């Protein structure tokens, strides 16, 4: 819990009993009747005893995904603990009660005259809190549960629409969810709102950002994704700044891009807005995990809301309507090249009806090409020829991530290119995969597909590569 | 050609005719007899005419892999051109001859009293030059062809053994080559040499560095790999500094590691020595493409040879012998997780007899785990269970590259871990793959394999992760 939120808790006056009942609603019937019998309410200082075991603390609500038979207490040392309920348990009230407020509804908080935006919640750590039973992180039950710690948000924008589309970790999000999100964004923006904020898990945020970039045709307003690397009840919660920055840009930013708003550094001072087709999670846990690759960030947003533009290629807000072009071919694959990588995987994909494969080659875009004669089964060239003969699209990117593929410099590159592999310039492998699904979804000719894949449609390919050192 | 080399060319006096003949030896019989008939020698300023086509320049040697019927000329503007020979061609000498020396043998150059080391050449850009017919890059025919531009090398070390093991692009190098290199290194080091330098292509240098790290048991001397991002006849040739730095460390450096010596920045001033299990090519073409990930570089080497140690975990030279433990299981695979990634690939690998798979998961080590019920075939959990039931080792790394996996924080991580997936801490995916092949090669029990994979054997796992900002 942030300092601000905890000081707000102390200032609040006591609330009606029915609010407390709502707070307890995630406990099981047995636990609830135990509380009612003993006249225990949320916030009460209680001591639970069972045989020789004794534990004391203030009673907290249980979260929606928590174990409903586990009683959560905030102890004096500040830590929360979970205690499994048992019918032989005894309870007594003693010590000072703390006030715990229910989550006010967002409509109660809205102020007038602020830029109207919409919010799409999909889950992820930004919408999570620690489960004090397991010590793990669980999804919050609603955006309200997050916003309770973010009163500043309601001084910046007015949330005209809130969609709780999913409560999913982003590792589980795929093209069907992208389609739903794209349709929702287009509807909201075309209804006259200034922009949209999307709360999303960080793991696959880059993939979703790329997918929305392609699906939202003629985008004329900001679509800003925000995630969190730390859960919302922790002091190091980064989602707050990421979300507020996203909301500010959605409300007033003059950028018609799908963007990702995440911390620039480990300090809680600035966010960078990365273009949706050039962004990648480059650290498992750091708050500044998201990097703009082969491009410039769109802008930097200070904690006080100051926006500094960085990219020389900014698309501005404009009139007109955005279209959700949601045609998508999911039968695609990405495969990484490494010493001993088995080229027959391409045959397997052909057999499975996969329409296109992105290779994550080495360096400038290599595959094993000319191994020694006695190891010739290691060459990818015959399998590439077979796959392309069968009508599969084979695109080349680099596992270096930074930089640009090249189809000419080395003999092995030329050999691969001459077999029909499409070299995808400086596109990220993940963006290339998502773009391929979208381009194949348009069902154009083979030639037109190749042309689209090597053309810059949404800022994913650059005539000159940037190397922005963050 | 570097400035130094070109000024050396001008200073040299004329050489005997037989040297020139050697230089021309890569031309075809027709071209050679055409030159002999017209008394043309390497370096002569000539004008070739064929019909109305005229081209002038100084005659250059042809490289071993070049087209033997293509005459290479250096033009006045500094560019080299290739002209296809035709029997109807005419030639006349006119203008100033330039002196082009033959490649002196390395033994001719050796000085006494310098640290004795060995050199293993495997190919790669560091051993390449431009082919002036195609504009592409081709392999040089011998280390001498590289060393001609690097007289400084012979003031630093004495090359007691030179092994031209391969002339391969590193994309074609795999475990059989690693084994040969490891055996050669062990033999050289145990014969009393101070260290070994390995010239290697950059694409898969990280994989080879990891493989040698595991194969060379009880390593007691420096093994330093050097590559080039630019070919050796270009002014921006980075291989020179990388190679000289590598030779200096092999000769005198007090480091008993397999290391990679590559440019620290785009300037030609310093190299960083990266530990072989923590290094990755992170740019397709920049000279400072190699980054040390989740660890500190061992040391920085200035162009003047000054060595500054950086890592707090340096293993020193010691007495004793190094052993080449070359047992290796090649039936392994690496597969990357992405939205819509097909978990049945694990079944395919099981069917193929693959013994272990490294997953490149998202974030802290996620796979699609709890997709919506109607898309449940997207979950990787059932396929993981089947693979592990069949005795396959399944290891988890992160496609973030930087940072550490975690098997506890989220419910989905715990679910994956509980199915038997081994979380591989902060190991790079590529290092984890190579390590898996080596660990499986030792043919230990399932439990012992898991223990070895999660133990730090060669600096590949760190109890605390480093974030060295280069």
Class by helix and strand content of chain A? alpha/beta
The total number of structural domains of chain A is 3
CATH fold-level name of the largest domain in chain A: Rossmann fold
- What's the main sheet of chain A like? 8 strands, mixed
Strand order of the main beta sheet of chain A, please?
9-6-10-12-13-14-17-18
Mean pLDDT over the full residue set of chain A:
87
What general outline of chain A do the C-alpha atoms trace?
globular
CATH architecture of the largest domain in chain A: 3-Layer(aba) Sandwich
User: Which oligomerization state do the chains in this entry correspond to?
Assistant: homodimer
Compute the number of helices of chain A. Answer: 13
CATH class assignment of the largest domain in chain A: Alpha Beta
User: Which pair of chains forms the biggest interface, and how many residues does each contribute?
Assistant: A-B, 77 and 77 residues
Kindly list the characteristics that best describe this protein.
22% strand; 8-stranded mixed beta sheet; globular; homodimer; Rossmann fold; 470 residues; 5-stranded antiparallel beta sheet; SH3 type barrels; alpha/beta
Task: Write a short abstract of this structure.
2 copies of one chain form a homodimer. By secondary structure, chain A is α/β, with parallel strands linked by helices.
What does it look like?
Two copies of one chain form a homodimer. Chain A is an alpha/beta fold and 470 residues long. The first copy, chain A, folds into three domains: 91 residues, SH3 type barrels (Roll); 219 residues, L-asparaginase, N-terminal domain (Rossmann fold), CATH 3.40.50; 123 residues, Rossmann fold, CATH 3.40.50.40. Helix content of chain A is 26%, strand content 22%. Chain A contains 13 helices and 23 strands. In chain A, the strands form six sheets. Chain A has an eight-stranded mixed β-sheet, sandwiched between helices. A five-stranded antiparallel β-sheet of chain A has the order 4-3-2-1-5, with no helix packed on it. In chain A, a hairpin with a 4-residue loop joins strand 17 and strand 18. In chain A, helix 6 crosses helix 7, helix 7 packs parallel to helix 12 and helix 9 runs parallel beside helix 10. Chain A is globular. The two termini of chain A are 29 Å apart. The relative contact order of chain A is 0.09. At the A-B interface, helix 6, strand 20, helix 11 and helix 12 of A face helix 6, strand 20, helix 11 and helix 12 of B.
